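Subject: sequence -> structure tokens, single chain

Hey, anyone have a minute? Need the predicted structure for the following. Not urgent.
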Amino acid sequence: MFRRRARADREFREVQRAGQALLLKFAQQPSPLDTIPAETPAETGPGEAPVVPDLPPPDLRAPVHRDVEGFLMRWDPPLVIDGAVQACSTCGVYRDWVVLNLRDGSVWLRCAAGHQQREPRLDTAWYNRHAGPGGDWHPTLEDGLRHLGH
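Reply:
Had a minute. Here:
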């Protein structure tokens, strides 16, 4: 009975090691998107063929996840920061927020009426503690807001 368990554990550890080695191998290689020239190649001399990348030009490529400017989540209950309920500085509502975490680490709040304000007391660490796992990617802020119902 214990031999089967030990053998299964040993096989599982071997698979884990092989997977970690494979991940390490790919992590050390440069991304194929990093090697694509952003511009058209320079003109070549007579008799030389121009070098053309095998991927579509930059304006026809699909956006990559790292081009996302930030993340957003819905926050329906009242938002309490440092013991005080946060209200919109323009219209005074205090619930149904969309919280935007931008790439620069700033956190912005958007009320249901569409007013936006930066909240300096919140940061990316706060956002990561309260946000669930990100699943949907939206190419524009408007698409993300529409998805969240704002």
